[in-house]
Amino acid sequence: MGMTITEKIIAAHSKYKTVKPGDIVDISIDARAARDFGGANVVKNLNDFGLKVDDPGKTLFTFDCNPTGSDQKYAVNQHICRQYARINGIKVYDIDAGIGTHLLIEEGYVWPGATAVSTDSHANILGAVGAFGQGMGDMDIAAAWNSGKVWFKVPASVKLTLKGSLPEGVTAKDVILNLLRIYGANTLLGYSIELYGEAVERMTLDERITVASMATEMGAIIILFPPSQSIIAYCRARALSPFEPVYADPDASYEVEAEIDASSFVPMVSRPGEPHDTIGVTEIPVTRIDSAFIGSCTNGRIEDMRVTAEILKGRKVAPGVVLKIVPSTDAVWKQCLEEGLMDVFKNAGALVSNAGCAGCAAGQVGQNGKGEITVSTGNRNFPGKQGQGSVYLASPAVVAASALAGYITTPDAIPATPPAVDYSSSVPVAAASAGKSAPTEKPAVIRGRVWLIERDNIDTDMIFHNRYLAITDIREMGQYAFDNLEGYKDFAKRAQAGDIIVAGKNFGSGSSRQQAVDCFVSLGIQAVIARSFGAIYERNAINAAFPVLTYSSFDKIDLKDQDIISVNMLTGEVVNERNGLTTLINPFYDAQYEIYIKGGLLGII
């Protein structure tokens, strides 16, 4: 039996000739990156455990979350990283460089068939060039920096073939939004997706990056593109090592194979709150906007900038609308300048900022205020992710057209004169709550009160919002747990040490932040039991020796909120003390238990 692209890449970076889904293997990592918000914690982990850097040439910092250095806590974290880099001979792509995942491609750190990890949950963007990239938490990155390897569970693969040609006006962003409409946020949870078809083969690097960057929003491990000749040529001109591209074997086994009619795709938007809540642009009612954002790792490439300029040229942004444009890297920024695109942007009334992540990072260009309505090219519109307002996701073409119209529309429907619109004011945000301390014992059997939160897709911004990312002291984290989850904003005040959270599918989707685990440890929460977990969140919890377990149903024990249960994490037996009923859930697997009893990943190195 042959192997898929992911399986071949993982096998080539392990001690095994072949691997299969479910295998847990150590894989060598070609590029190991940490960003400004996670980098200080990586340094702290290395220093606390007395660990050294395996290969400085494969190790780098990327300061893309706060490229202006305008936040005091980010400035401190960046300085910690710079000092560590100077001592250890590590390359720093500083605040003038741009988005780290893009730089890994531009600077030749990755190539078709390579492996890479980063504290960026969108490191799977590297699937655009046929590389296997993964976002991971601070402990994983520290381990990779020290040993050059990480453990990984080989994912099952899915083969999606786009049949037919894309209709006029349908962009790469529309492709991924249409796929999100079909598969949602957790249908393909934990899978490695390979894309095929004529429409896929014709995609440029910039278009592939757009699609690959939203694998995380689909719940997938990665979206991989078989590298085309143009992608291979691009990478050969930059790669720091020689390479041969990797393709799936003809007899590779896929858990799911599907053909999708790409000719049926339409320009789409994601409605506020969930990237997968998509609808055709022409299907939504007239929706006025306060602001528009073009940029992010999804749509900050030169092709995106050119499309934007083509629509804006000779026009003005609608009165009362703020348009913010942020190129993905400094190279793209300079190319915009050389091609005259900056003049077009400024003449249209747009604000252009330093290359970087921008709106996806708290306090940066592209964030909005409470009550503000934004249309954005970003990859996430979770509540609070791009500010306190409402965020629609769309392509650069739709965002640029909407900025000119004053409401969400397509380029072929921009009015000659924007209609007059009334705008509402913002409302202040409530203050956060006080924290608690965490226990230290980690028994095989736990007993505690249940918080039954019957919701799917509780993302890391709901668990621990990005405005607190600069916090590195775990004792301070508990007070912010769930303070962005509607109905549970007082969770930290009401929770007790020993409580157990039971949730739905895809718990912990979104960003790679370790704090979304550590905030529960800080409060003394004993475990999270969910139907499924976001891949990065699950790794972070396991590596921190924080119990996360999965279940199919609790119907047998009639589980209710505030019930007291006992959980045997080795056998999976759960007892509801209210009625004495028992059921089974999925117990710890071996690697998880080993890390758990050692007190965390870094304790076993």
CATH architecture of the largest domain: 2-Layer Sandwich
Structural class: alpha/beta
Sequence of strands across the biggest β-sheet: 22-21-20-19-23-24-25
Radius of gyration: 23 Å
Our estimate of the beta-strand percent is 15-25%
| CATH topology value of the largest domain | Aconitase, domain 3
- What is the straight-line distance between the termini? 34 Å
The overall strand count is 25
Write out the CATH superfamily name of the largest domain: Aconitase, domain 3
Q: Any idea what the shape is?
A: globular
Largest sheet: 7 strands, mixed
What is the domain tally?
3
Reading off the top of the CATH hierarchy, the class of the largest domain is best stated as Alpha Beta
Mean pLDDT: 93
Low-pLDDT residue spans = 425-440
Helix fraction by DSSP (H/I, runs of at least 4): 25-40%
- Quickly count the helices: 18
